[in-house]
């Protein structure tokens, strides 16, 4: 596959491409107020708003649909903004085209479903509207590539990928783990495919966004998509991660813009990429340790209530025996794992001791 560069889609897009706007289009007034304030930020060249919101549970704000497309049409005319909306099926796509949306994006929950992506691609045959494809919810690079291929096979070369992080079961500091090695691998396979980072959905909170956005720019990503609402505290979706346009401006001013476009991920510092992977693995390990301690506390409480001794020789021997076997099977050093088990066991005894003597 060969792709057109971002700046050829909708000249004169500024690079890196900055996409901003609310998570969801809630009302005409909300869009107008937000657009007016975003107009003061010169770097923003594409206005985003979701008109159909894919919510995890029902009875949440699900977007205003076609009505919102009419509002966005007015925003387009009044402020001269190019506009991008999410489409999740053929019907959405037909309507977005009918209302002259400039760029479409496919959301993470849609990329996972080849049937939906194909029906969108079928509507897009012969239509050269740019499409941005978000990564699927889970860390499946092939599925991401597959969705891009379906759009490409419809005859469209104006495609970008959006990296929005990956769902992880358990607590992490991110709403969606970035797993930077996945977009890096995508870029390595398709060096001319533009990749845009969505730090809002990776972070899930305003505090983390600057750090994630800077990382994306350091890697040479081609743009950022950041959610912005004129008053985030009343946002009907993703309130915690949206910036007011004024807050967004402060964040953007602090970002160090690398020479994107000329930098390729694969030309970047390989060692740095590998270190980022280690950072993420350590984050996983620490989250697992935290969960382990929580279970140990429950065990400690149980033992206290039932007057059971903390140290149980049988259980400890069984742990050492089974973990050594697992180590052999996984090709890990037995000695290393035994040492680790000792450490974990010591900490487990300490935590339970504290509890018993409370
Ligand atoms: C969004 O951009 O508001 C959205 C729903 O994102 P995602 O598909 O990444 O969850
Ligand atoms: Mn959102």
Structure description:
- By secondary structure, this protein is an alpha/beta fold.
- It folds into 2 domains: 6-254, Alpha-Beta Barrel (TIM Barrel), CATH 3.20.20.70; 270-356, Chorismate mutase (Chorismate Mutase Domain, subunit A), CATH 1.20.59.
- The protein has 13 helices and 8 strands.
- Strands 1-2-3-4-5-6-7-8 form an 8-stranded parallel beta barrel, surrounded by 4 helices.
- Strand 1, helix 1 and strand 2 form a beta-alpha-beta unit.
- The chain is elongated and about 75 Å long.
- The model has no long low-confidence stretch (mean pLDDT 93).
- Manganese (II) ion binds at residues 23, 227, 237-238.
- The site of phosphoenolpyruvate has 9 residues, from helix 4.
Largest sheet: 8 strands, parallel, barrel
Work out the radius of gyration: 24 Å
- Which small-molecule species are bound to the chains here? phosphoenolpyruvate, manganese (II) ion
CATH third-level topology of the largest domain: TIM Barrel
Structural class of the helix and strand makeup? alpha/beta
Measured distance between first and last alpha carbons: 64 Å
Given the C-alpha coordinates, what overall shape results? Answer: elongated
User: Mean pLDDT, rounded to whole units?
Assistant: 93
Which spans of ≥5 residues are poorly predicted at pLDDT below 50?
Answer: none
How many separate structural domains?
2
């Amino acid at each position: 596959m060969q792709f057109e560069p971002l700046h050829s889609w909708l000249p004169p897009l500024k690079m890196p491409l900055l996409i901003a706007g609310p998570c969801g289009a809630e009302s005409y007034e909300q869009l107008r107020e937000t657009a007016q304030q975003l107009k003061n930020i010169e770097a923003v060249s594409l206005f985003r708003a979701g008109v159909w919101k894919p919510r995890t549970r029902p009875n949440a704000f699900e977007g205003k649909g076609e009505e919102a497309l009419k509002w966005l049409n007015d925003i387009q005319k009044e402020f001269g903004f190019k506009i991008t909306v999410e489409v999740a099926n053929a019907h959405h796509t037909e309507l977005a085209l009918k209302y002259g949306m400039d760029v479409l994006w496919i959301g993470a929950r849609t990329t996972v479903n080849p049937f939906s992506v194909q029906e969108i691609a079928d509507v897009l045959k012969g239509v050269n509207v740019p499409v941005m494809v978000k990564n699927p919810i889970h860390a499946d690079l092939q599925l991401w590539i597959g969705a891009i291929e379906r759009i490409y096979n419809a005859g469209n070369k104006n495609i970008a990928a959006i990296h929005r992080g990956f769902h992880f079961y358990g607590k992490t500091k991110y709403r969606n783990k970035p797993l930077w090695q996945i977009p890096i691998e995508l870029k390595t396979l398709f060096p001319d495919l533009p990749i845009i980072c969505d730090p809002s959905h990776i972070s899930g909170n305003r505090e983390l966004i600057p750090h994630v956005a800077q990382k994306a720019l350091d890697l040479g990503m081609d743009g950022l998509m950041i959610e912005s609402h004129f008053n985030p505290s009343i946002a009907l979706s993703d309130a915690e991660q949206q910036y007011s346009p004024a807050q967004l401006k402060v964040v953007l001013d602090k970002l160090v813009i690398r020479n994107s476009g000329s930098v390729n991920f694969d030309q970047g510092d390989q060692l740095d990429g590998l270190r980022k992977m280690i950072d993420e693995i350590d984050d996983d390990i620490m989250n697992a340790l935290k969960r382990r301690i929580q279970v140990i506390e429950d065990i400690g409480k149980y033992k206290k209530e039932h007057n059971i001794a903390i140290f149980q020789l049988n259980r400890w021997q069984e742990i050492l025996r089974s973990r050594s076997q697992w180590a052999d099977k996984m090709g890990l050093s037995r000695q290393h794992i035994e040492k680790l088990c000792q450490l974990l066991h010591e900490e487990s005894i300490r935590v339970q001791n504290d509890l018993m003597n409370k």
